[in-house]
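The following record pairs a protein chain with its ligand, pyridoxal-5'-phosphate.
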Amino acid sequence: MSKKSIWSQLVQPEKTSGENFQSLASSVERASTVIFPDVKSLRNRNWRDKSQYTYGLLGTPTIRRLERKLALIEGGESCVLLPSGLAAISLTLLALLRSGDRVLLPTNIYEPAIEMAQFLASSYGIDLAFYDPLQPHMLEISSNTRLLWVETPGSVSMEVADLSALAAIAHEHGALVAVDATWAAGIALPVFELGADISIQALTKYQSGASDVMMGSIVTRDMMLGQHLHEAHVRLGMGVSPEDCNLILRSLPHYKLRYEAQDIAARRIALWLSEHPAIAQVLHPAFPGSPGHEIWRRDFSGAASLFSVIFQPEISQAQIDVCLDALQLFRLGYSWGGSVSLAVPFDMSRRIDYPYRGKLVRFYVGLEEPQDLINDLNQALSTVRVR
Ligand SMILES: *Cc1c(COP(=O)(O)O)cnc(C)c1O
């Protein structure tokens, strides 16, 4: 071959493997095109096989590394990564349900998931029904029920569900069990030991840890089910960025330590709130009297630093809004899992089974000093006059 122009040399890929370099950092392998050494290997490469690389959308080594670690954390066989926690929920529903199938959703489910399920019901003939997560014995499973959804605890109203009881009933009727276990974060609840088939995580939360990445995962106990989800994932073209995966890979080694330290801080703050005259009830699964607390004690080994409070019924939303506006360290905003503490007032008027008379505010405890957070709550709550 004739001598190549430097411009051709510049665009050709360099051979880097085999160089004498090793570090502790995970590297970011980005790709759209994956190149093949010859035509035969191009023709033989199988996109369904996750141990092979075919195209950027189907995964690069960085993406595989994060998938393997997440499957390891939860004790699952396979993992699929999606651009958000909500996308992980949507893909699970889309991949598993056909028209005429029923999906059972708990009344405490993450609200955007209801909208997706309602869309599937109205556009694709999915049969949608709700159940009370605190009454597993009331569960009615029809012969067309394909999927039972569980969110434990509910990420706003904090009911802890009896996963093993629910899974036993579902399996008896041949239905699959998917658990949105974002609160437990792969740390505090062994979802597969308790009977789940599918574990959903919003990695956006503790696994990312810095309020700057959106991602979701679906981990399955069974390889075949994982393969089915992988194929649906590829068909929908829902890839994730290796750069984002690397941000999560950087956070994973210390997310359990953060989770545990924040758990301790949040319990201290929730206890302080439970003794405040403006607060009627603290909804924290580790607190006696919180819905499903006995199940939490039986099944969980820890708690997220996310809990809710119910204000005294005579305190109006306007008064609560003034109180929340007075917060200085707690910031106002959705999502959670980062360093900064957050507060969100939730309008529970859409929940038909909301059992409380007072208004609900959800708190996320971040990494600030707990005493500073208590002082912040104390000054903000002083704006609320309690009779
Ligand atoms: C945040 C969250 C989701 C959605 O995750 P995103 O990455 O924000 O789309 C789903 N379920 C639960 C329980 C969550 O807390």
